[in-house]
Amino acid sequence: MALKLLQRLPKQVGQIVIHRYACTNSGLLFRCQSDLHLCVACLCTLSPNCIQNHGCRKRQLDGTRRGLTTIVREPSFAGSSSVGLHKDSFSRFCLIQMHHATPAEEQTFYTRLNKCTSSRQVFRFLRSVEVMTDSMAAASLHRVAELEQGVNCLKDPSVLEEHTIRVLCKQLEEDSGRLTDGGLISALLACTRLYLDPWSTLMVRLVSESQERLDRGYLKVGHLCDLGQAMLTLEGPGSVMLEQVMSQIQKQEPAQWSLADLRAMYKLLQSGAGFDGKYCDLLNAMHTHAVTVTSHMNPATVSELLGVLTSLNQTQAMPLVISLCKRAVRHVPHFSDQELTLVLGALMHFGHSDHYFVDAMEKYVPTMAFISHPETVTKVMQFFGRRNILSPVVFDAVAESFVYRADEYTPSQVARQIMPFGKLGYLPPNAANVFRKVETILHTRFSHFQPRTLLNVLHSCILVERFPVNFVSKVFSSYFLQQLQEQGTGIDRYVLAQLTQLYMTMKLECPFYEGPQLLPQYRVKSFLMPGHSLETPVDVHLYNSVKTGLVDLLGARSYFGSKVLTPYCYTLDVEIKLDEEGFVLPASHNDEVFKRIALCIDGQKRYTSNKRQLLGKEATKQRHLRLLGYDIIQIPFYEFDKLRNKTSVVEYLHQKIFPHSYRLSW
């Protein structure tokens, strides 16, 4: 057959090119210098008569079977694989070994392919393509998978019944042995993304051929990663082929990998291959190499790597996180919404930020707050709130957009955008409009809010002196409290603390409130608790310095109490009691107490990280203590740290606590 086929081809085989001709049954034809036209199907079936003369002897197909024509590979046809598309009534793809797509042709193809916004457009585009390489064919399947990607399934499974895709898959099935390594493995990966039956003939052949090439041990890193992705999808982390892939990858040196290989390997590990901790040494070597190439990373790569580090919880990779953050500064205006969301999530996860990144965000957020995806705007607020960074520029821009866009936000997004205002104790210029909008949303969509989400919104409001009186009665109802208990594992101490502080706020600041009261069993006795707390523990070093100065000022340690728990749930850093004449009483003395002084020893953690403004919870604590009758004396760290000796400390404390009396010397 091969001999007869070669005899019928022109002698100058090297000059064969691909052209398209219009005829009664138009197809992909070879055009020789002699202008002799031979149908591919006739060549393959060795028909004595070409379709142009006496018709073709190719087999007749019924309406349910797809036509497919393949030129078998002979030694003289040793070249890269490409797929040609017939334009007759039975569209077919032909493997043409002599065709080499130029980089320009490939780039044009991929550009047009990526412009397709639906599967139908992809199929229409493919029907217009004369020749494509196997990599192009695989890319087409990937594009369909991207456009139809749903939650663990295709949005429209009927696309798999399209004539074009069925013919393409049939060609890949029958010519799996001809495909290049990249084309073969990319096609296999694309098929897994299309959720094709793992036991279909196509999948079995692609996997079998991939196994053969894997056994040879010559696959490149990028191809190994794609193969690992495919087998992870097909067989899970326990796949034998995946183990073989990882074994071959571990024998290579990550420092020699290209950036594309590095990305592919990170993606494979993120997909599930790296969660069992077996590849720590490989990961560390990859991190070391990645640090050296961050300057070459585009926005997509930066966000992708940060997302991988977050998924794998690579806390030991902080040098890489810092390097990626520095690179992200350049890309802030160029990140897509999804990419920026990933970057912000990763920086929150690792607890990192720098002022250059914050500056870049301050320039960018006002331009995107009204147009970006709601989740991206929400993530921006979460980032600034989590890092305790008070940026009026950012907060004001988001506050303005909130008034106009909040109706399209989910309850979770509403809560996560409002909570940072409360946490950092900041009211934007349009605060009245913002909280009026919050009230409107709660009125119209109250039942849509999860109990804890609603509680977070209301609690954030009281931290900035906005009192949600109309909704507190619903929160204190037995029905709502029962919902809180049923959500998750019950009501934890932090939730009870929020309820208690909400209750105290109604008592102290909204005396006109006459709705239901919070039952005693839902109240806590102290707001200070390990971990998440409504009070910030006192800075130990600062406290010890102040305590020493107080002993020198008052004459004895017995004249002040430390870390005193009040009946009102708040813990005082230092309490000093005075009688009616202004004399200091011993801390243990409870009779004849005329005035109580609460010293708030405010360390750096009680303030926003970039400004000298108390956090919302600390400002609320001091506000409530004043309403309860305490004299509040603030000892901020930025004032106390300037004091250089014992004398200056004592003078400072005397001026703070007893500004209108002379100091006695002991």
TrEMBL record:
Ranges that cross the membrane: none
Superkingdom in the source lineage: Eukaryota
GO BP term, example: regulation of mitochondrial mRNA stability
One Pfam family it belongs to: FAST_1
Keyword vocabulary terms for this entry: Mitochondrion
Residue ranges occupied by any RAP domain in the UniProt entry: 597-655
GO molecular-function terms, A-Z: RNA binding
Cellular component GO terms held in the UniProt record: mitochondrial matrix; ribonucleoprotein granule
Subcellular location: Mitochondrion
Coiled coil: none
PANTHER family: FAST KINASE DOMAIN-CONTAINING PROTEIN 3, MITOCHONDRIAL, FAST LEU-RICH DOMAIN-CONTAINING
UniProt protein name: RAP domain-containing protein
